[in-house]
Write the structure tokens for this entry.
Amino acid sequence: MTFLLLVLGLAVLVVGAEGLVRGASRFALSLGVSPLVVGLTIVAFGTSSPEMAVSVQAATSGQVDLALGNVVGSNVFNVLFILGVSALIVPLVVDRQVVRQEVPIMVGASLLLVVLALDSAISRTEGVVFLVLLAAYTAMLYVQSRRASAAGSASPVEAATSSWDSHWAVQLLLIVGGLVLLVIGARTFVGAAIELARAFGVSELVIGLTIVAAGTSMPEVATSIMAAVRGQRDIAVGNVVGSNTFNILGVLGLTAVVAPTSLPVAGSLQTFDLPVMTAVAVACLPIFFTGHTIARWEGAVFVGYYVAYVAYLVLNAQQHDALDDYSLAMRWVVLPLTLLTLAVIVVREFRRRR
């Protein structure tokens, strides 16, 4: 029954997110907002609305570990699993703007979260800071879009052109209906996740970092994989990077603002999960920079790392006998080889460009 409620809640979240994105996108376009701004904000942020609904619901219900684990776990899942699987389907092309602007902003947001979590709490004031930075980021995208439109170089974003949702009343109904479904789905999903954690004897943090994080990232999974299959490979990358930035600035920011008290940051988040999230974001820089593509072998490495990350969480939660050996292998074999590989890639790219 718990698994059924988990799947039902996830399905309602996905349907609600789809309705919200479609209605908001069409409504914004009808008001004359640039398609580029709609794509970089409403569509990218809309796919993160399940994370928003679940984290806010969890924080207001007192399940703070679940709320924070959802954000951190979703960011790790988005880069390693979604980009990895998308690249395995077809090598991904990375737009220059993503390399020069969006990825550094994602890395900066990740580093800011790490710094603000050093005191083991995210306060309401820090949440406001996140939301202000998100507003500034959105405004910057809007100004850039206006300049690009004036120069005649704006890249169009595919928008829904069906007639059934062209009327403003239908668009508003989709927006309201999507929000209602998100609230209902979030409550069902969070409740089932908590029961699942209790049944398996693991912490809410581990459930948030794995099952909840993967579940709330289903809109990003669908968007990026379908974009890769259809040949819209830059959208597959941009959706993930934009969603990660929104998860930190928007989802965590709003969660910290509406939570009854400051959000306590668990010690394991500080010492392991947040550094992993930041390292994953930083690793995008050399991989995206070299040739502006994500090759299939790089996608396979991403997926492999996600499997290794989840395996560590499971072993650690059970305090398995193999945990120490596994940790040593990751620390002294896998990570050094990864750093060496990234260094070789960067050096080869610099030599090629010369």
Confidence is low (pLDDT under 50) at residues 153-161. The chain is about 80% helix and 0% strand. The CA atoms of residues 159 and 267 lie 43 Å apart. The first helix runs from residue 2 to 30.
